[in-house]
Amino acid sequence: MSDDNTKPTKKGSLIIVGSGIEAIRQFTLESREAVEQADKVLYHIPDEISGIWISKINPNSESLLDCYVQGKPRSDAYNEMTERTLRYVRQGLDVCVVYYGHPGVFVTPSHESIRRALAEGFRAKMLPGISAEDCLFANLGIDPSTCGCQSFEATYFLLHAPRFDTSSHLILWQIGTIGDTSYNPSRNLKPSVIVLADFLKKYYDPNHEVFLYEASQYVICEPVIQRLALSKLATAYITGISTLYIPPKLTESFDLGMANKLGLGSELKATNFHFSFKKLLHFTGK
Ligand SMILES: C[S@@+](CC[C@H](N)C(=O)[O-])C[C@H]1O[C@@H](n2cnc3c(N)ncnc32)[C@H](O)[C@@H]1O
Question: Are 109 and 170 part of one and the same domain?
Answer without folding.
Answer: no
